[in-house]
Amino acid sequence: MNQSPDQITIRQPDDWHVHLRDGDMLRSVATYTARQFARAIVMPNLSPPITGTASAVAYRDRILSAAADHADFTPLMTCYLTDSSDAEDIAQGFNSGVFTAAKLYPANATTNSAHGVTDVANIMPVLERMQKMGMPLLIHGEVTDADVDVFDREAVFIERTLSKVVQQLPELKVVFEHITTAEAVDFVNASGANVGATITPQHLHINRNAMFQGGIRPHAYCLPVAKREQHRLALRKAATSGSVKYFLGTDSAPHEIHAKESACGCAGIFNAPYALESYTTIFDEEGALDKLEGFASIHGPQFYGLPLNEGTVTLQRSKTIVPDAIEAGGTTIVPFHAGQELDWQIVG
């Protein structure tokens, strides 16, 4: 990494958690990820979801077509786990290089998760096979019980489910995705080297007040929701600590503006257009620019057992004005930081 007070060059980063959608939306948003990141772990929660090898290959082809202007971009495909997932098909997909990981969505936890897992016991044979193969399990870590407060669902999931999975399968690689709480940080820190976590830019920038500033702010709503300030500070400390357990995962999740600004607005924040600038601003504020390359470009590949990227990205201290809206696929999407200024800009 080369660094000066006003410019930083890092090894090209990867995004270890992104939603690229499909169809017109995919063709509109893929380039925002591909222009910054060499690789991206692509979420499988389409409708219908990506549950088998054949559908993953077809989706990968559509992504590559959508990102054709960035020929070096590599989408890394994931398998959507269901109560009836086929361990043999998943194993074949992983061994053939189609699947990089499998994704556990608790049923109805977030967008397009109705087909998710109702009880981890139902997929234990699959998880045991994944542990044996070294295939990572990516987890959306929330319970969905109606009697559990939405702000407590991550902490309860750790207690009820995640701690037991890690105990029962001590060699299973687990990525606790888009963590949002101090409890999650404590859990990851206390776990072995087989447990890592991704952190989004929004959970480093905002706390739950952002959803209620002057009224309901649907474009600050994602799942898991942002939590209290104490949790945001814990996440910032973890991300900028230099710990190899934490790495970049944007969880960028585009929705058409009418789907966000509605009586039942969708969860998701579209942060892909300025993701790297957003993260760099955080690391700069924390006096930790020297830790950015590890978080963005090194810890993730090391966890997944993949080679580091050879290319570089250069950012310069310069005001970047984020537009109020972005036209995409014949519709409009409101990006994260809409109408705001960021302190860094990609220049090479």
Summary?
The protein is of the alpha/beta class.
Explained architecture:
It is a single chain. This protein is an alpha/beta fold and 348 residues long. The chain has 11 helices and 14 strands. The chain has helices spanning 23-34, 53-66, 87-95, 124-133, 153-168, 182-190, 201-205, 229-239, 257-260, 275-285, 292-304; strands at 2-4, 7-11, 15-18, 39-42, 74-80, 99-104, 137-139, 174-176, 195-199, 246-248, 312-321, 326-328, 331-333, 341-346. The strands form 3 sheets. It has an 8-stranded parallel beta sheet with strand order 3-4-5-6-7-8-9-10. Strands 1-2-11-14 form a 4-stranded antiparallel beta sheet. Helix 2 (53-66) links the parallel strand 4 (39-42) and strand 5. Helix 1 packs across helix 2 and helix 3 (87-95) packs parallel to helix 4 (124-133). The chain is globular. The mean pLDDT is 96.
Global Rg: 19 Å
Which stretches are low in confidence, meaning pLDDT under 50 for 5 or more residues running? none
- N-to-C series of helices and strands: EEEHEHEHEHEHEHEHHEHHHEEEE
Structural class: alpha/beta
Give the proportion of residues in helices. Answer: 25-40%
Strand portion, in percent? Answer: 15-25%
- Distance between the ends: 14 Å
